[in-house]
Design brief:
CATH architecture of the largest domain in chain A: Up-down Bundle
Protein name (chains A, B, C, D, E, F): Manganese catalase family protein
Oligomer: homohexamer
Low-confidence stretches of chain A: none
Largest interface: A-F, 93 and 93 residues
GO molecular function (chains A, B, C, D, E, F): metal ion binding
Mean pLDDT of chain A: 93
Radius of gyration of chain A: 27 Å
Keywords (chains A, B, C, D, E, F): Calcium, Manganese, Metal-binding
Number of strands of chain A: 5
Number of domains of chain A: 2
Family (chains A, B, C, D, E, F): Belongs to the manganese catalase family.
Distance between the termini of chain A: 18 Å
Order of helices and strands of chain A: EEHHHHHHHHHHEEHHEH
Cofactor (chains A, B, C, D, E, F): Ca(2+); Mn(2+)
Chain lengths: 317, 317, 317, 317, 317, 317
């Protein structure tokens, strides 16, 4: 069950209205790397984690709820950056004066003109409040979130999400010189970094966590690097020497077309990998047993019940 | 700031897995009339309400947070209805047996087969958990929500939203015979009715609340009913007799083509409405003054600050 | 069958081109609260209404067709506001002069510059005509419409839709000082108010119409108001005293966490509601019988045929 | 102004309910090649055509309005194919019996089961009516339409649209054996062919109509065929011999990589094309003058007015 | 298998940064008529063509790959038009100076200000690179492509697509005066014309290719032209005289409402068409036999294998 | 410039048609974690990488082109899994027999019935070929890709993308028992693992790469873990002890509401962090200088030119 206190987690303040920055800030309200995306990603991931991993469930819910609280902060900042717009719009009968201002020299100072220029929806649809879109008006969409029911995958999705969110805040900070807004952005940006570290630590507690998921890689196809854009090619640790942590060397395919032809579409390969294939099959079977039992053992027999209402009694004592 | 306790608001339970119903229930998780849509609608409306209407802000946040809590209940129910799917998928190496089951007589009993048939994403993307889509896989989208920065409009949007959500729950209840699930649905359906009543009462406290917004209707065009589909026409209170609450009669345009031609596109109308037009202009000016002052007076001068951190201190005492 | 006369329902005129306002006006052409949304909403609702409610079918088609006619007016106005753009673009070979104008002092006066700035698609995709998008270029989408096959719900959706559409016109009117355009907007805005009254009157003729749909609310969960955001809480008619029209009092849950815990997720409730539950079950059965028979009785046995071609013969006599 | 008579353009009938086919038929109601897409495409194209080409405006409106009338036919057929669904859903209290039927042997005969299986939205959202989506539930979207303000382009878009729509009807006809439905589909499919012929004839009246738009092709880059997928290459009229209607031969680039390198990215080309370039520049200037004047001359000076209300007076005489 | 050389097909150059034009150019990178849309359309069409029509498969892949190469050119041009943006953003700590510039007189000269104004995503999401959206930020979407598994339809879709793409380039050329950029656009525009001619030639080699698909038109409904918008009607080759290539005359329905009534929804028609109906049925059967055998005969029995790896061996010799 | 050889990179084969699996496999053709998403993500990232990091540009293009080649393999497999569908559809006149089969006992064996059941678009829109959608018909959308112009972010996005893609292939492998298809999937799944390792190695070569982007975290907000869901809380390395690699301890906020109140929204914090703040500011300035110079120095002065056409000359020698 969710709960709400009206104070913001961070004391968001705004020195003066700035509709242009309000519009930019929509990226973190209803944008692809924004706070709602983060909140919904961790919230939906938490369902799958609960049964076998109540510790990760707790962490995911803690962070999801913090992201909802950040969503609230971003929305509040946008609303304050648009101060004056709603009042002007409510003055619905007095349109002529505004038009004179808008086309004249005072346009840049006029809040309605600024809002209209920054985002037409501020003056036609939201009446000076945040909309759940990005800075170009694209409605927030659940395609933005990644939730796949496997923690070795989900936590990696989260490391990437936090990285992107951090970068967007870094970019946003260049476009305001309001010290209050900057401080709020600094708080929000930093929390993405903190969450990154939490997810990194959590992923580390799951072993093995590579490859993501359950199955091993097929040893016949693991090592080749295909030089598909052969001009001005560069060799580096990603295609030369030892593969990270795998104890094997990269196999650089200089001329992929010839290689594919010679191997009849990679079906005629070195026999030495047969033994490896068998090892992988054994490991796959073992990991499948372990991972599936982990989930199955955690699920109750018979009627399923989500909550016991015991902990909360203790909590309230 | 949001906060969370792990117990669900309602004690959701599930007697046995049912992926087909899990998929239907996605309508209320990530669908157009579902709980996330409701939660985000009221949450975004609350921003605009806070300044001039702290009482409505409180109500909108109370209900928004309850809807988030319902979202959690729906998701938990879906997760329980999919019990067994995640465990089977983690048994990744053992595919041959499953295929035999899936194509044989036992297919209907097999949880993976049921899940695959109900929604391919249960077995490819979410690994047996809820996804933020509707029952046909369409990702949730912020176009579903209506938030327009005017309470006489927003509260009406909410009456409609609650009506639709209630109807969807009513329909869903026909497709399960699990008494636990039925009870959960009965709770959720009923809360939509309760919220309807709250919004209705709130709208009543704002006077006048019609027409929605600030401006009056133009008296020249208010009363005509255009009979645009003239065959088998029916006369009823919506086009005959007195208009509801307006003290005026409907003006039934039997033959719109002829009428439009005769009035040169409605520009040559009865002079008697000139006086009415002036009255409306006066009323518009007055309402604009009142409504815009209401907002402007509520907004702080200078630096804006969202929270005072005073109430929460008292709350915690 | 639809039919068309080339004269507009309202005599739309434009004093001078204004691409910026043309772009804003797209909200009511291809936007979420615009004329196409209204037309398609009532048009699709009409299908379900036809059988048991031919009177409402007639009304929905009358209004749907008027909304299509308004769509045409809005599009014609946009086209006129963009006068000059198509001609300039057709002068395809003469690009250099335009670039000089665009970057120089005359830019504000140049119609191509105005169109480019207002909406890049005016000069790249539509060649100076309306596109079926909103003012930020989002293509119109059928997610905007609500059509649920139950008039007690659909008519409420329509009250909300008309309210929103009215507000958007009210806002748009602030951004033009062309008296012809203003008059067109005043007409269109007012018709939304008129339609509102039609739908309100129609809903009133269906009794009972609350709760929407068929089923009653569950008496165990109807009355609670959960104080989910407990700081700075306000009591008002939406959570205090008598519920509107229900003859029952609100039940204010001051501390929802404690309440949920004490009632084990609302499953341990006051016994006094058992009798109420039975009454509701009886009422549900009765309403189900009435409402389903109403539909079933109206449907023809055997082959279904939509039209009889009798009325039109009479109409043409 | 639109107008409506309740009789369908074609006498659509249905022998018996068939939810599966109802779902397929959604392709032509709310799908990418369906009737709404056609109607809105021609309707929006008509705006741009009106000024310089009132004859094409008339044709586009005639066909657009016929497509709206076809949309109505498709929707009516879907509604009749779902007969029984709405009535069952209204019987909201009686859920247990349905569940027994649905899981038992009678499931295939039961209309609710059929509807649920065909499309979950038939039983949760539309209550047995058409929704403005395709057969997989994707909401209709204005990205489906092509309207670009140039008749040499728009009419070609229409030839393609009609071709696709015809093919979809052809495919649909394989999935019903109801003779009434087949006849309706035969009518609808054939009208796409008829419209194709209308657009073809109209395009022919505009001369020159190639290249589409105003500008000529650049003679330096017109003739090359790049053999980008060089294996198993085939020579045919599209890369060998004379180009259709241009009096020039294809220039087959056997080895594009070598050619690009040798020409430094096509910048070092045969000098003989200089003269051609100048001819093209002259032709471009001339066509620009003609085409832009055609539009500009057709636009009124001063106030723009869409309708004169003269023709309709005559029409009604 | 795809392959890549780092040199562009055309030597794209840019004289100086121009974020406004970079944004416009996104239309051809991630827009509805852009290069990705073309590439993916032909690439997906090629799958269906391969079996019965290896010659068309070769052509479609040749052109698809050229369109991918054009996509690369467009993206490279956008990246060059945004030179300076990434470097400024990386200077993340130095925000104050930029704000002074942005609000002052130098704003127009400042690359960050230009980029922000042109497209907020250039400075928040892509850091000065191309995004796969159109010029208004709408993400590229596969709804843009048409691929229907029938060459008589697909090739017509391609003629339309090339026409639209050509027009967009024509429009874009008006908005830059950079001679290098103009030359690139001239190349890209011209290739659309060249592809048009290739598709035209290919369609001609398939006989008969009308009507598109397999089935003939129903002779009862082929010839009528419905005068659905009867005011100011115009007669032309599209509704008067002989239909193109069909040897039949248009049948002009002056008053569609009366005609539909008189024919009871077109079901009571002239008997003379019975014979025609039979001819059509025979032709349909014959064409079905031919067309289906053409595909079936081309498909291998037993295991399907896409590639033989023989041709490439020869290619490399 | 792209190039294509008709042989697939992997020798994809299919033992027998299986439309159900063809539909599932669409996830990796047009789905959110599929091959097009990967290809377009790396392709668009490459633009930003080219200037300062030609080595990463080479790697991104190599992998992007391999992903395009995988897209081709997936599409070819889908086409082969649908063998028979196109031929049946072309047999357009012979509909009655199919209907008999479809409703009878042979339905499960009939390829058209299987295709219709698996995905209605296989029989209405694509005629038995792949469509650029996921398994539920959602068109591919560029929102799926992440490309942010900063390699420390982009490479992390890629690690997550490869993890998700690997998991989807793992899941898909459970739903086919065709050994040829399994082998293709094993190849494709394994390549995701190989790419993961390439991106990991590449990220390692950029130092420092944490935090992602340029700016350091704000020391005032880096360490707190907010216990936002306080029931059944768990302590682990993500909120207890030392933060990974940072040499600092987590600061566990047991009661966030009280903490926020006591710190007035985190604005009244421990003074000890002032010194840290200054250090961070210095580091930010230094990193900004380094990172921005890295980009600026790599950009050419004056005219920008993408390709030199020198390397390809050498390549062809």
């Amino acid at each position: 069950m969710f709960y709400h206190v009206k104070d913001l987690q961070f004391n968001a303040r705004v020195s003066r209205p700035d509709p242009r920055f309000a519009n930019l800030l929509l990226e973190q309200f209803g944008g692809e790397n924004g706070e709602l995306a983060a909140a919904m990603q961790y919230f939906t991931q938490a369902y799958g984690a609960k049964m076998p991993h109540p510790d990760k469930y707790d962490m995911l819910m803690d962070i999801a709820v913090e992201e909802f609280s950040h969503l609230e902060i971003v929305g509040a900042t946008i609303q304050m950056l648009l101060k004056g717009v709603n009042g002007e719009l409510k003055n619905a009968a007095d349109e002529s004066e505004i038009m004179q201002v808008m086309d004249g020299a005072e346009a840049r100072e006029n809040i309605i003109h600024q809002a209209l220029t920054a985002n037409p929806h501020f003056v036609t649809l939201s009446s000076g409040g945040p909309r759940l879109t990005n800075s170009q008006g694209i409605p927030w969409c659940a395609s933005y979130i990644h939730s796949n029911g496997d923690l070795t995958v989900d936590l990696r999705s989260n490391l990437a999400s936090e990285s992107r969110a951090k970068l967007v805040y870094e970019h946003l900070m260049k476009f305001t010189d309001d010290p209050y807004v900057k401080e709020t952005l600094s708080f929000l940006m930093t929390r993405e970094v903190a969450h990154y570290k939490m997810f990194e630590a959590a992923l580390e507690t799951i072993q093995p966590n590579f490859p993501p998921g359950v199955l091993q890689a097929d040893p016949r196809f693991t090592r080749q690097y295909f030089n598909m854009s052969p001009q001005a090619s560069v060799r580096g640790p990603w295609n030369k020497g030892e593969m990270p942590d795998l104890g094997k060397d990269w196999d650089y395919v200089q001329d992929p077309i010839a290689y594919v032809q010679a191997t009849e579409g990679l079906t005629v390969l070195d026999d030495a990998k047969e033994a490896e294939l068998e090892e992988v099959a054994e490991l796959d079977a073992k990991m499948s047993e372990i991972k599936s039992q982990e989930v199955i053992a955690a699920e109750p027999k018979g009627t399923a019940q989500w909550s016991t209402y015991q902990d909360s009694k203790q909590l309230n004592k």
